[in-house]
Each structure stands twice: as structure tokens, then as C-alpha cells.
Specification:
Blueprint (H helix, E strand, L loop, with lengths): L16 H6 L8 H4 L6 H5 L6 E7 L2 E7 L3 H14 L5 H17 L6 H8 L41 H52 L3 H6 L3 E3 L20 E5 L2 E5 L3 H14 L5 H15 L8 H6 L8 H11 L4 H12 L6 H14 L13 H5 L6 H7 L2 E3 L5 E3 H8 L2 H10 L2 H9 L3 H6 L3 H11 L8
Parallel strand pairs: 1-3
Antiparallel strand pairs: 1-2, 4-5, 6-7
Helix pairs in contact: 4-5, 5-6, 9-10, 10-16, 12-13, 17-21
Length: 472
């Protein structure tokens, strides 16, 4: 496994590039990371191998990653691992995830959901959907309360004798007072039940997270930190990082353009890679990867796997309700969960799909289901987006011109250029006023642009470039 140049761990990032990208200010650094210090090379060298989440054996050399000696170093190690887990062979990633999960439990840190998801298979956790509901609704004991006497006929109305009637009226007052007390007690009981229900929902989420987060001592000890990666690669060959500009890549990982799609072959390889290794990406990365991939592939007529098309979709999946029902079933058909997910589903067709994704993710977090994405629960993008039309096709439908030397312009940039007075003045210095006025007034400026000589197109494209400034 080639490790040169990869910032897999904090020790590989002496300038703190990854750390600063996550926490740009000191105020944004989690408190747990402020109470420790980054270990020096000498301090790391004095630690036993078992103090690390992963020990790679490659070609006879040993590489120790992810120190777990205290809460601060464990938290930092978890952050760097989650940023880079897709770079490891599968066995190495699972081993690190399991050991870091155990370290989190040991140091009183709640393991992040992506860490638990990566560790789950190796720890052989099962998915008993009914087990999510560990608390049941409390049933009140005893017979139902009788109707309040205050709602019946008053005692005093039964008596004619003034003395008896007066005594009965006193009884009526006592009965009314008792009725009010019963009403107040009922209201308090209802309020307590409601608060208990809210606590129950939180407990359902927390108890499942704790169950997933706490491997037994036998499990933790059984997972050795050593993984032999001799002859292996950080990722399959088609997914290796290549020298390419950001605009020609699908993702930016640790500040590095990743997943080049500069030609037909690279696009096909990127599609094949995602079809096989989609679970190595976070849901957000899957969406970005597929949208950009579809935008590159569709103009060339490249057929993409259904999984790519689905993540690149822009319209709601007509079968989304089935994916919603999976969640309710996993929660033991909890009536409150059914109501919450049902309400979300009802407004899906009138709500921005991107807003729906965020709302579904928050609801999944509340019920503890987000940590089970790809393990019985489809992530929000897969749940909501369909394949009828993709974001890539929308981008591909946009008019665009590109020269052989890399200059380019699309319809939005051309429209912005023709509406920018400063750039129009610059154009008048380059071209005849009649030509400029004709381009501004044209009903279809793209068609006029297409008829121009390449040299003229290049000049206009450079003037329209977003980073081009020509004063106010």
C-alpha cells in the first residue's frame, strides 16, 4: 500500500491542513480536543503497538496510525480516520473502526455514526428492528375513572327541607373542590406521560447507539491492530488520485482533486468504481460524485449504472414510500415514528427535494437510524431521488462552448457578461460597437456566438470568465 503523500493521520499533516479545514477557528475546536496535545515522534515511538487503532505491515515495514492514548488524541484520530477511511483496503478500514470505537467507549466519547457503521460488520452486530423499541408505553393501572360528580346533578337539588338543602350544598362545594383536584391531577398526569414519551424516544435512539458503540471486552481484545497490506493499494487502481484540475474531478478530498473524468475511459472507470464501492463514500459525497459524473457522461452518450443515475436524480422517486416504510418497520411500527415519517412523506411532492433530504436526515438522527445507512436503511438521497431525470442531464442540457486549449463559456456566463456594464466597455475596446450591440440585443446570443470565429469566441470566453475583473 503506497502511503507517500497521503494525509491519513494527524502525524502525516504537520501543517494541520485537514484539522484547519474542519475547525477554522479555535472556538470551533471541540473542547475534548483542546485538553490534550499532539504526540511528538519521540512520544509516539515510545508507545506500544496496541496504543494505535491500526498497524499496517507493508513490505516488512510497520506503519502505526491513529493514537488512542487519551480522549483528545482519540477524538483527533477518529476525525482523521473518517476523513480517509475510503483510502484503506476494506479489512484495514474495519479494523481501525473497531479499535477506535472501543477507544471511544473507554474514554467516554460517543462514537460517530459513520465510525459505528464501518465497525458494525466486523463486530458481527445484528439488525433486530424490533429491538430498537426497548421501552413500551406505560399502561395505567386500575379501572377507568368514573365521571366527575361535578358533571352530575347537584346534591342540593334533591332536597326540599332548607336545613338538609343547606347541608347538601356544603357537600356540593366539597365535591366540586375534589373534582377540580382530580382534573388538575389528570392534567399533571397527562403532562408527565407526554414528557415520559419524549424521554422514551430519546432513550430508543441512545440505547441503540450505546448498544452499537460498546463492544464487549472479548470483542475488543480479539481485534488485533495488525493488518498486512503488502502489495495492496489504498483503493482499486481506477480510483487512485491523479494529477488533474478540480474542474475535471468529481470530489475534493483533503484539498486534493479526486476522481478524474477528463476523457471517455476515465468516466467509464469512475462509473464502475462507484457501482462497486459506493459505500466508501458518505451520502453527501455520493450525491456530488454522481451529479458531476452524469454531467460528464451524458453529453458523450455513456450509459451509467442505475445506482449512479439514482444518486444523480433531481425528481422524487415514485417508490420513495417503500423506503420510508422500511424505517417505520425497523422502529417496530412505533405510532409516533409512523406519524412523523408519514407527515414528512405527505409534503414531499410540494417541498424542495434538497430540503426534504435534510429533514429526513434529521428525523433519522432523532430515531438513531442514520448510523444504519447501507445496513438495512437507505440513506436520504437514495430514498428520495429517482432516475426519471438527473441533475447531470440538467447540467448537460445547458449550452456550453469549449476550446481545444481549455477556454470555455456557458449560457449563464454569457448572459452575465452581456449584463455587466464594466465588461461590455471592455468588449467595445476589443470589437466594433455594432457587433457588441447586436450581441446584446440578440434573441439567441448563443446562436450568434456559435457563428463567430474561434479567435473571437476565445476572447469573449476569457472576458466572461467568473474570475475576470474589469473594474466597476
Amino acid at each position: 500500500m503506497k502511503l507517500a503523500g497521503l494525509m491519513l493521520d494527524v502525524v502525516d499533516d504537520p501543517e494541520g491542513v485537514v484539522f484547519k479545514s474542519r475547525f477554522p477557528t479555535m472556538d470551533s475546536v471541540p473542547p475534548i480536543m483542546k485538553v490534550g496535545k499532539v504526540l511528538s515522534h519521540e512520544e509516539r515511538g515510545g508507545l506500544p503497538d496496541d496504543s494505535f487503532g491500526l498497524v499496517l505491515i507493508d513490505g516488512g515495514q510497520k506503519f502505526r496510525k491513529y493514537a488512542m492514548v487519551d480522549p483528545a488524541n482519540t477524538a483527533v484520530s477518529v476525525m482523521y480516520f473518517l476523513e480517509n477511511r475510503h483510502m484503506f483496503p476494506e479489512e484495514a478500514a474495519k479494523t481501525a473502526a473497531v479499535r477506535l470505537t472501543g477507544a471511544c467507549v473507554q474514554h467516554g466519547i460517543e462514537p460517530p455514526a459513520p465510525l459505528l457503521a464501518t465497525a458494525a460488520e466486523k463486530l458481527a452486530y445484528l439488525w433486530p428492528g424490533s429491538a430498537l423499541r426497548q421501552l413500551t408505553e406505560k399502561k395505567t393501572s386500575g379501572a377507568e375513572c368514573a365521571p366527575s360528580p361535578s358533571a352530575e346533578k347537584a346534591f342540593a337539588e334533591y332536597f326540599i327541607d332548607d336545613d338538609l338543602k343547606q347541608q347538601a350544598a356544603a357537600l356540593d362545594e366539597q365535591d366540586s373542590a375534589l373534582g377540580l383536584q382530580r382534573d388538575e391531577l389528570q392534567l399533571k398526569e397527562d403532562e408527565i406521560r407526554l414528557q415520559g414519551k419524549r424521554l422514551e424516544m430519546q432513550q430508543v435512539s441512545r440505547s441503540r447507539a450505546q448498544q452499537m458503540a460498546q463492544p464487549t471486552p472479548a470483542q475488543t481484545q480479539a481485534v488485533s491492530p495488525y493488518v498486512d497490506t503488502s502489495g495492496q493499494q489504498a483503493a482499486p487502481p481506477e480510483a487512485s488520485i491523479k494529477s488533474a484540475a478540480a474542474k475535471d474531478c468529481l470530489l475534493i478530498i483533503n484539498g486534493t482533486p479526486w476522481g478524474p473524468v477528463r476523457n471517455y475511459q476515465e468516466i467509464e472507470k469512475a462509473a464502475q468504481y462507484f457501482a462497486q464501492w459506493a459505500d466508501r463514500f458518505t451520502p453527501v459525497q455520493r450525491r456530488e460524485y454522481c451529479v458531476k459524473l452524469a454531467a460528464k457522461a451524458h453529453p458523450l452518450g455513456i450509459a451509467l449504472p442505475e445506482l449512479v443515475e439514482k444518486y444523480a436524480g433531481v425528481e422524487l422517486d415514485p417508490y420513495r414510500q417503500a423506503y420510508i416504510d422500511i424505517r417505520v418497520e425497523a422502529l417496530g411500527n412505533d405510532p409516533d415514528a409512523a406519524h412523523m415519517y408519514g407527515s414528512l412523506s405527505k409534503v414531499a411532492h410540494i417541498t424542495d427535494p434538497n430540503v426534504m433530504v435534510e429533514a429526513l436526515e434529521q428525523l433519522d438522527d432523532f430515531y438513531g437510524l442514520s448510523q444504519h445507512y447501507d445496513n438495512g436503511i437507505p440513506d436520504p438521497y437514495f430514498t428520495l431521488f429517482g432516475m426519471s431525470k438527473t441533475a447531470g442531464q440538467q447540467l448537460a442540457d445547458m449550452w456550453r462552448w469549449e476550446s481545444e486549449i481549455g477556454d470555455s463559456i456557458n449560457e449563464n456566463e454569457l448572459a452575465d457578461l452581456l449584463g455587466n456594464s464594466a465588461k461590455i466597455r471592455t468588449m467595445r475596446g476589443q470589437f466594433d460597437d455594432a457587433f457588441v450591440d447586436g450581441l446584446i440585443k440578440a434573441k439567441n446570443p448563443q446562436q450568434v456566438f456559435d457563428s463567430l470565429p474561434d479567435t473571437t469566441k476565445t476572447i469573449i470566453a476569457r472576458l466572461a470568465a467568473p474570475n475576470t475583473s474589469h473594474g466597476n
